[in-house]
Please model this.
Amino acid sequence: MQSIIERFKFQGDYEIIQAFKEQWYKFYKKECNPKAILVPIPLTDKRLYERGFNQSLALAELISDNIEMPLVRCSGTKQSKKNRRSRLAERLEFKVVNSSMVTNQEFLLIDDIYTTGATVRQAANCLQEAGARSVRSITLIRA
Model:
């Protein structure tokens, strides 16, 4: 699985995501609230430029078109190069673009890999502080 994700994220093999489509969608339908707004974990502008796409957005697009981007990522270094302790210690900076998009809404954060949970926790906290009614998350892989 590690080599597949590396091909997807770091070598730009965008189409490899199609291999997960059916199971990913089934899991979403079984476990998630279809009324929740999907929020892909954002990348920094630099990371988006380097990669050419947001892998979390690609995953969200496989399951619904009810997608919004109320968060921006202001900072953060590559998580893939860090150990568990470093990931937990780093404070990723997310900001809400427009709090009126968030107030009293239900959100489902979408990310590719859950290692320590730091990324989804910090994104969820940001949405909750801006007034979200609820925030849940799903990830493709648990590392």
Q: What stands out?
A: The chain has a mean pLDDT of 88. The two ends are 10 Å apart (CA to CA). Strands lie at 37-40, 71-73, 94-96, 106-114, 134-142. The chain has one domain: 2-142.
